[in-house]
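B., you asked whether I could sanity-check this one before it goes into the benchmark set. Here's the sequence:
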Amino acid sequence: MNVVRFMLENRTQVLELTSEHLWMVGLSTLFAVLIGVPLGILISRRTGLNKPVLAGANIIQTIPSLALFGFLLPVPWLGERADRLAILALTLYALLPIIRNTYTGIRGVDPAVVEAGKGMGLTEWQLLFQVQLPLAVRVILSGIRVAMVISVGLATIAAAIGAGGLGEFIFRGLAMVDNRVILAGAIPAAILALLADFGVGWLEGRLRPR
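And here's what the prediction gave me:
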């Protein structure tokens, strides 16, 4: 009850930090989709690029988030604005599930269906957009779903470099040793992660190929 009272008393700040959190997660996920889906399509076409691209995305995932923020701080233009830096870092972390699922989804399309499309005279681009991507859309959305949930959690750490978001409450609560303040950041972040998971999951079901 103390947490609820604290959140109600500070509802303006809770809403402000939640909107900052949503902005970082939404923009970084959008950038990750714009980069990751074309990369996944590319490596599904040119299998020689498969291992280096996925290896690069895997390496990014192994870098601790605070370390990555630190590496990016000296970068010109990015280091001047903490929110830009945070969005770039979150974009990099979101790439792996999107690239991997796009590749897996396209490569997982039944070869007989692909051959049937070729037999009907479809070009490579027509085959991609009319056959492979529609059949792979649920797998791709599953990757975006994972990327969004990861980003919601990692965005809380962005507060350590002054990027804002719900992590502000968490770090402030840790400094004050006050569980109310920590939970005021952790609870909305958990709710956002659940909503992202449910929302994209619902979209997966709606876009089921018929």
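One thing to flag: The CA atoms of residues 134 and 209 lie 7 Å apart. Otherwise nothing jumped out at me.
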